[in-house]
Design goal:
Layout: H1 7-19, H2 24-37, E1 49-57, E2 63-69, E3 86-88, H3 89-94, H4 103-112, H5 126-131, E4 136-140, H6 143-149, H7 154-162, E5 166-169, H8 176-188, E6 194-197, E7 201-206, H9 209-237, H10 250-267
Helix pairs in contact: 1-2, 6-9, 6-10
This protein binds zinc ion.
Length: 276
């Protein structure tokens, strides 16, 4: 897949939002969030989320360091600044010292630290964004990444494919435990440009909106190329074409199972699509 980042468009959006009192960091965050959200291969079932660490004035006018992170109920493809609620960053980071935090407590802490108490609930993956030190963090449920990780040897394939450029995180249900484990895996390899979350999706990091976005495009493109190679291998070694059916093609089967995985999670009430 190709990067759709256009410097001129990014600047135009920053200028337009500046007139409405929205800072440049948040404006650029909105710009690349839309680029990700408009690509259906990246945001299966409306999932995925993004964030930026920045400084905003609180309700009394004092500057405070915050995480602006996708709020529930907002679509990435049509994101606007109110869909990225600002949460005080220090209390979120402080939670990391805990052994465990329930989903209910996590939501309570996040809501209690919103700059605007009327803002939507921050994503359930807010803590993962907070525990990663980079300014811009992008997360998608890329179809290609799901197809790759949903194979029996998915972790090994990703380890070889990304060769240290991405941390590989085993499957853990979204929430505090996943955030904590992901941060540990990143810190063990601080040169990593992102994380592959087994049977879940991909995170990329950057100092700028463009860097995090273009790393997403590059890493997903590597996964797509790897899948293509697999397909070729199947066609070359397959027995008579008449005996081929969908279940005999690993990549197609993996794609179908990945979809079922997400649907299962939603149906079982574990999460809602825009929480993922
Ligand atoms: Zn997710």
């Amino acid at each position: 897949m190709e990067s759709r980042f256009v410097e001129r468009d990014a600047e135009a959006m920053a200028d337009r939002y500046a007139k409405a009192g929205v800072g440049c960091d948040l404006a650029l965050r909105v710009y690349t969030t839309r680029l990700l959200g408009e690509d259906k291969k990246l945001v299966l079932h409306g999932g995925g989320n993004t964030s930026v660490k920045t400084v905003v004035p609180d309700l009394l006018g004092d500057d405070v360091e915050v995480l602006c992170v996708k709020g529930t109920g907002w679509d990435m493809g049509t994101m606007e600044p109110p869909g990225m609620p600002a949460v005080r960053l220090a209390p979120l980071r402080k939670l990391r010292a805990r052994e465990a935090v329930s989903d209910e407590e996590m939501v309570r802490v996040q809501r209690a630290n919103l700059i605007d108490p009327m803002a939507p609930n921050p994503s359930v993956e807010t803590l993962l964004h907070a525990f990663i030190p980079h300014k811009f963090v992008d997360h998608t449920h890329s179809t290609a990444i799901l197809s790759l990780t949903d194979q029996p040897d998915g972790e090994q394939i990703c380890t070889e494919l990304y060769d240290g450029r991405m941390g590989i995180v085993p499957y853990i249900m979204p929430g505090f435990a996943l955030a904590k484990r992901s941060a540990e895996i990143y810190e063990a390899n601080p040169k990593a440009e992102g994380l592959i979350l087994h049977k879940h999706g991909i995170f990329t990091f950057g100092a700028s909106a463009r860097e995090a976005y273009e790393r997403m495009i590059e890493m997903v493109s590597l996964a797509e190329a790897r899948l293509k190679r697999n397909r070729k291998a199947v066609f070359v070694t397959a027995a008579p074409a008449a005996r081929l059916n969908a279940s005999s093609l690993p990549s197609c089967g993996a794609e179908r199972r990945s979809g079922q995985f997400l649907v299962r999670m939603v149906w079982s009430g574990v999460t809602t699509p825009d929480w993922l």
